[in-house]
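Hi R.,

Here's the chain you asked about this morning:
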Amino acid sequence: QVQLVESGGGLVQAGGSLTISCEVPRSISGINAMGWYRQAPGKQRDLVANFVSGGLINYADSVKGRFTISRDNAKNILYLQMTSLKPEDTAVYYCHVETWHWGIRDNYWGQGTQVTVSS
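And here is the predicted structure, written out as tokens:
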């Protein structure tokens, strides 16, 4: 099973910044969307930000103006730059890719990277 590889999580103080990255294997084709989700303890996994085919970029309301999603197409790396971090941003962050082939949708996930924001 092809897997996405995340890196860059860690512990940061409130108000600080952190950038996490995700290496997307070139073997994955038919990408319809790619982005980041997060899951805090006892909560569901929610979308943070993603690119959708056609040029659309989505952000969760809670991160708008603070987080920026970007990608390096030459290196096949996806980034999430997080600024003005808050304790409520503490979660495991997952890289996600959705593909679409002949009417069949597949989802790829990374192993997750922990981001902890201390108050």
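One quick note: The radius of gyration is 14 Å.

Cheers,
M.
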